[in-house]
């Protein structure tokens, strides 16, 4: 017995806004799937990916594919719908119909047909559509007062976030094409002020004052634009599986009228598009200029033994650190999210502390961790030898075995994260000394492995 899911509600937005929310890839990802691909024409392809469900549970990978069956702007949108995660998923169709409901409102009706009534897929979609139709209504209501834009950037989240908070970077991309920016003050913390002037291509200067409301590094920035026109911005930075970053920017105005006025008077939508295009271009330049420190050593030992030298505290204490330094292991939790906290004592008795925070461990191939100096309580501190040494360095160790020769090639890659331009310059200036320092450390590892083969 086939079953049909039907939902109906009134949305506080005109049909044009609702239809755009249903058919725009950018709008869809704000209330529906995590990734959307949609060709807005009859016969066009549809692809949605859900990596979390309507209850917020992550770890899913549901991929829905289909074709656009009907496309009547502001009135009807219909598509076929098939979940590829289940080869037995039925051929179903989703149809949205929109009717004016007066006072800039829209009656929205959803019909999802083709399921077997009472099946698990029927119940799951019935529950899901109850949630998502409400999300659609919330999005459309807010969207009349908002300007939103989502882009995927081929750069790590820490770098993208830093482009928004380091004045040296901001001046190189902020504003539409043809604009330049002079920053007088930029205090990136809750309650801090950002004061700047945007110089238009026609010579007009635009004074701006922003107050930061929320800074969650490297996830979210919220600020209020308190000079006219007034609005609130939320920028979110979501890390993607392939090392890219999903950036979403929302500009919320007091009313739909104020939003429309800014769009007409200042060309805000096109201005935002151009600004984010400039951000992507500047990120490409910065990524090309960035240098990471790389050192490689071949050890005359099997990979499992080299791996163990990094995974067990008793072994690490025998060789890690600069040549001649004594190590004390305070804690080693060798798992993603775990911490390696240790101290190093120099031959003249000076003590310094350090820590690793593990991000990824793939035995016996790769270890990824954030390396920092610390105090004895494990708090991150600045390096004792330089006031501009980066606070955090992303470290990637790879282990490659030559089974025939019974050797292991170890490669260490180091790059600063959440660092300023000056910190990057300091880091890159120390490459020669880092080669010498790690060379001595790996010499100690060679000696240790020779004794324990």
Helices, strands, pairings?
Blueprint: E1 2-11, H1 15-23, H2 25-31, E2 35-38, E3 45-52, E4 58-72, E5 76-83, E6 92-102, E7 105-116, H3 120-143, E8 146-153, H4 157-165, H5 167-170, E9 180-186, E10 193-199, E11 205-216, E12 220-225, E13 231-239, E14 245-252, H6 256-266, H7 268-289, E15 293-299, H8 303-311, H9 313-316, E16 326-332, E17 339-345, E18 351-362, E19 366-374, E20 380-381, E21 392-402, E22 407-417, H10 421-429, H11 431-451
Antiparallel strand pairs: 1-7, 2-3, 3-4, 4-5, 5-6, 6-7, 8-14, 9-10, 10-11, 11-12, 12-13, 13-14, 15-22, 16-17, 17-18, 18-19, 19-20, 19-21, 21-22
Helix pairs in contact: 1-2, 1-3
**What is the mean pLDDT?**
91
How many helices? The count is 11
Assign the CATH architecture of the largest domain: 2-Layer Sandwich
Q: Low-confidence spans: pLDDT under 50, at least 5 residues?
A: none
Question: Which band does the percent of strand residues land in?
Answer: 35-45%
């Amino acid at each position: 017995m086939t079953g049909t899911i039907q939902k109906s509600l009134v949305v506080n937005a005109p049909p044009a806004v609702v239809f755009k929310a249903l058919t725009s890839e950018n709008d869809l990802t704000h209330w529906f799937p995590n990734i959307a691909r949609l060709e807005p024409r009859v016969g066009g392809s549809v692809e949605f990916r859900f990596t979390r469900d309507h209850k917020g549970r992550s770890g899913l990978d549901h991929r829905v594919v289909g074709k656009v069956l009907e496309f009547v702007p502001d009135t009807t949108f219909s598509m076929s719908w098939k979940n590829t995660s289940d080869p037995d998923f039925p051929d179903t169709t989703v149809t949205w119909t929109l009717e004016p409901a007066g006072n800039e409102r829209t009656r929205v009706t959803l019909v999802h047909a083709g399921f077997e009534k009472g099946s698990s897929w029927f119940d799951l979609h019935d529950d899901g559509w109850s949630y998502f139709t409400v999300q659609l209504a919330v999005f459309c209501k807010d969207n009349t007062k908002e300007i939103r834009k989502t882009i995927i950037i081929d750069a790590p989240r820490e770098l993208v976030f830093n482009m928004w908070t380091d004045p040296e970077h901001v001046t190189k991309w902020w504003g539409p094409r043809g604009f330049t920016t002079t920053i007088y003050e930029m205090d990136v913390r809750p309650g801090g002020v950002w004061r700047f002037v945007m110089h238009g291509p026609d010579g007009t200067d635009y004074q701006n004052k922003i107050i930061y409301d929320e800074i969650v590094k490297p996830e979210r920035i919220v600020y209020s634009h308190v000079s006219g026109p007034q609005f609130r911005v939320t920028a979110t930075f979501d890390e993607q599986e392939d090392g890219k970053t999903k950036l979403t920017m929302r500009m919320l105005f007091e009313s739909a009228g104020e939003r429309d006025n800014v769009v007409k008077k200042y060309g805000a939508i096109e201005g935002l598009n151009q600004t984010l295009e400039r951000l992507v271009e500047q990120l490409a330049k910065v990524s090309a200029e960035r240098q990471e420190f790389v050192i490689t050593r071949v050890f005359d030992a099997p990979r499992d033994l080299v791996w163990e030298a990094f995974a067990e505290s008793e072994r690490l204490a025998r060789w890690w650190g600069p040549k001649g330094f004594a190590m004390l292991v305070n804690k080693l939790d060798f798992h993603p999210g775990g911490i390696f906290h240790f101290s190093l004592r120099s031959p003249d008795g000076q003590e310094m502390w350090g820590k690793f925070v593990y991000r990824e461990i793939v035995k016996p191939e790769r270890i990824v961790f954030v390396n920092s100096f610390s105090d004895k309580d494990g708090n991150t501190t600045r390096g004792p030898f330089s006031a501009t040494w980066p606070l955090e360095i992303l470290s990637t160790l790879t282990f490659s075995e030559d089974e025939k020769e019974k050797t292991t090639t170890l490669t260490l890659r180091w790059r600063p994260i959440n660092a300023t331009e000056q910190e990057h310059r300091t880091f890159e200036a120390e490459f020669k000394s880092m080669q010498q320092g790690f060379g001595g450390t790996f010499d100690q590892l060679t000696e240790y492995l020779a004794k324990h083969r």
